[in-house]
Amino acid sequence: MKALIAVLPGDGIGPEVVEQGTRLLKAVAERFSHSFELVEAPMGGAAIDLTGSPLPPETLALCQRADAVLLGAVGGPKWDPPAKVRPEQGLLALRKELGLFANLRPVTPVPSLYDTSTLKPEVLRGVDLLVVRELTGGIYFGEKRREEDRAFDACVYTVDEVVRVVRAAAVLARARRKRLTSVDKANVLETSRLWRSVTERIVSEEFPDIELKHMLVDACAMHLIKRPADFDVIVTENMFGDILTDEAAMLSGSIGMLPSASLGANRRGLYEPIHGSAPDIAGRGVANPYGTLLSVAMLLRHSLGLEQEARAVEAAVASSLDAGVLTADLSAPSTRPAGTREVGGSVIDRLGE
Amino acid sequence: MKALIAVLPGDGIGPEVVEQGTRLLKAVAERFSHSFELVEAPMGGAAIDLTGSPLPPETLALCQRADAVLLGAVGGPKWDPPAKVRPEQGLLALRKELGLFANLRPVTPVPSLYDTSTLKPEVLRGVDLLVVRELTGGIYFGEKRREEDRAFDACVYTVDEVVRVVRAAAVLARARRKRLTSVDKANVLETSRLWRSVTERIVSEEFPDIELKHMLVDACAMHLIKRPADFDVIVTENMFGDILTDEAAMLSGSIGMLPSASLGANRRGLYEPIHGSAPDIAGRGVANPYGTLLSVAMLLRHSLGLEQEARAVEAAVASSLDAGVLTADLSAPSTRPAGTREVGGSVIDRLGE
Ligand SMILES: [Mg+2]
Ligand SMILES: [Mg+2]
Q1: Which residue of A has its CA nearest to B216?
Q2: Fewer C-beta within 10 Å: chain B N or C terminus?
Q3: pLDDT tens digits, chain B, 353 residues: what are they?
Q4: Residue A279, preceding bond cis, omega within 30 degrees?
């Protein structure tokens, strides 16, 4: 197939990890006979320095034309407050312009990295979960007010906002183990009661083959640590998703391992590792690119529909990890850590083994 | 000293665990020459069955007169919806009438129970944290609306609401390791920005000896699993506290171990184990009373000012656990579990060892 992929290296370690992502995309294209056009564009702090804007019109136009967007990371102390134009604004604007309302965060700890997690290996065994977080609604985007002696935030959800993200999550569950856990606080919040009733209706009407469970957010925060292998797909509102995805990230030993995708109504998506721009280690060639390489696998699966290729990438990553090709954040202090490029090469070498 | 303690056994396993709590209070009174008057009253489902109300006026009047309230648990399938009068309403009303705005949940895993946690022993070593949750404000108590196609919840905090709970938490930190972590989402929420600025001011003006750190709620959800021993006292708003206390509870292997206190402007407090009424095991004499016994320690410390007695109870609990006196939720399947009364007796025997 032919595909146009926008590549936004961004800031800090972004360019280093994205370089391995583009190498991998080229290798996948070659091995599976696809034609991927990769076009780079500035984004975040790098774009502010070049153009004054964290999301220049040319970058946005490219992303809107592309089949998928691969992003490294944005931000850094150079553009921290009191700076008014900030790298993160570019990311928010990009999500909004592309209509991305579902954030996907899979967590699948691999046995060779169980040591790096603070959870016991027997708890991690069999964990393969995917959190789908609503990304554009809820209290983060509601009206805010500040008065002399009080502050106010509004949490609003419409039926349509819930419908589309639950539908997206149910489609994903259907391609996995067909189990969906919807997380809310329906015993207290009106938005959660709406969430629960809409979820109930959509799943029973459109996804009778999916097993749906409801769970309160505090119970879910427990369950994620107690029996994480119980989960398949979790779907939840914006703020609960913000908290639970970060908690779930700890099942994997390093956030350097974790990919993410943001999806909208069509197939176009934004793919990025969840680690930030890590300015403290930028430019030293030591950053962990596995999160980016696994984001490439998600890109292949969700935006290009190339399931076989996605699995080949995931298998190559697993094989590379098993072989002990580990960056500094993953390896024991006594062993020689692998560099960023070395990991990229190792995964590419193992592609389609 | 003389003290009046209201004892509300409640429902399910409540009466069984509270019985051990009253035995312990009597033993403490005897050993340390205090005069505790213990008066029982109906509460929750038991009170609904007796009087039609989950918090009868006589029970409330007793609690208002008492120096402290010891509660077991309330609720059970018998009073679940569609029942309109519910046991939990009694608890909410009691908290409100007593003006309890700070919920305290300490988590101090003991080495002899590290096996029962899903976290690795080296992560649990040194964990001794206390979460102080604001209990009467925020989105759980804000205005709620439902329209045809949308739902709405308001989150409001006033300066006064933040001041009083932060002050309570800082006082507690002062008696511990003098470190306070305030958790919010100030990068997004207006209520959190108010929370942060009030906390900053109160601590710098009134508690210059306390080391204050701010942490975002999602980062805290990570940190609690990654390096829980870093925390001393955590203070946070109602909903974040709801989620984080349940997450933190998992550091300890069983929620049967965990005590709680709810405090207000004066010394009167409500003390209860965090486990629920567990109707499935009620009446069989197998429930874990350690959470109640540790709640008694909190009662002695926070409402009666009996620090030495509180420590004696905690030491007796630790000694009993070390000796392997474990209820079924704590013990290996191969060993004979201790019964509820056996644990009570074991702790009393070790009091002041
Ligand atoms: Mg987050
Ligand atoms: Mg809770």
Answers
A1: A243
A2: C
A3: 999 999 999 999 999 999 999 999 999 999 999 999 999 999 999 999 999 999 999 999 999 999 999 999 999 999 988 888 999 999 999 999 999 999 999 999 999 899 999 999 999 999 999 999 999 999 999 999 999 999 999 999 999 999 999 999 999 999 999 999 999 999 899 999 999 999 999 999 999 999 999 999 999 999 999 999 999 999 999 999 999 999 999 999 889 999 999 999 999 999 999 999 999 999 999 999 999 999 999 999 999 999 999 999 999 999 999 999 999 999 888 889 999 999 999 999 999 87
A4: no
Over range A85-94, report the average pLDDT: 93
Q: Residue B83: its pLDDT value, please?
A: 86
Q: How far apart are CA B89 and CA B103, in angstroms?
A: 17
Find the residue in A nearest to B162 (Cα). A150
Interface test with B, best of A136, A164, A195, A243 (most B CBs within 10 A): A243
Domain boundaries, chain A: 1-103+255-353, 128-250
> How far apart, in whole angstroms, are the C-alpha atoms of residue A86 and residue A53?
9
Asked whether A175 and B137 are in contact (CB, 8 A), the reply is no
pLDDT of A300 higher than 80: yes
Catalytic residues of B: 140, 185, 218, 242, 246
What's the gap between Cα B87 and its chain centre?
Answer: 18
Task: Give the C-alpha separation, B10 to B47, whole Å.
Answer: 8
Q: What is the pLDDT of residue A80?
A: 87
- DSSP characters over B95-139: HHHTT--EEEEEE---GGGGGGSSB-HHHHTT--EEEEEE-S-GG
**Terminal CA-to-CA distance of chain A, rounded, Å?**
22
Alpha-carbon gap, residue B298 to B72, rounded angstroms: 14
Of A12, A242, A215, nearest to A105 (Cα)?
Answer: A242
Nearest-by-Cβ selection for B152 from A156, A185, A221: A156
Contact A222 B145 (CB under 8 A): no
CB < 8 Å to B193, chain A: 146, 151
**Are the C-beta atoms of A182 and A195 separated by less than 8 Å?**
yes
- Is A140 among the catalytic positions? yes
How many whole angstroms separate alpha carbon B26 and alpha carbon B20? 10
Q: Which of B145, B189, B245 is opposite residue A190, by nearest beta carbon?
A: B145
- The CATH number of domain A1-103+255-353 is 3.30.565.10: no
- Could you tell me which residues are beta bridge partners of residue B7? B40, B70
Known binder of ligand: residue B256? no
The set of residues, in sequence order, having a beta carbon less than 8 Å from that of A253 and lying 6+ positions away, is A109, A113, A114, A115, A116, A117, A118, A330
Instruction: Give B242's contacts (C-beta < 8 A, 6+ positions apart).
Output: A185, A217, A218, B133, B140
Residues B116, B337: contact at Cβ < 8 Å? Answer: no
Superfamily for B1-100+257-353? Answer: Isopropylmalate Dehydrogenase (3.40.718.10)
Q: How far apart are CA B171 and CA B44, in angstroms?
A: 32
Distance (Å) from CA A267 to ligand 2 centroid: 37
Please tell me the distance from the alpha carbon of residue A85 to that of residue A38, in angstroms, as a whole number.
28
Where b means 16+ CB within 10 Å and e means fewer, A228-240 reads beebbbbbbbbbb
Residue pair A197/A160 in contact by the 8 Å Cβ criterion: no
CA of B135 to the centre of ligand 2 (A): 11
What is the least distance, in Å, from the CA of B305 to any CA of chain A? Answer: 32
- Which tokens is B302 given? 């926070």
Give the E-state strand segments of A201-348 in sequence order: 211-216, 233-236, 259-263, 269-273
User: Is residue A353 over pLDDT 80?
Assistant: no
- A247 interaction partners in chain B (CB closer than 8 Å): 218, 221-222, 224-225, 247
B279 labelled ligand-binding: yes
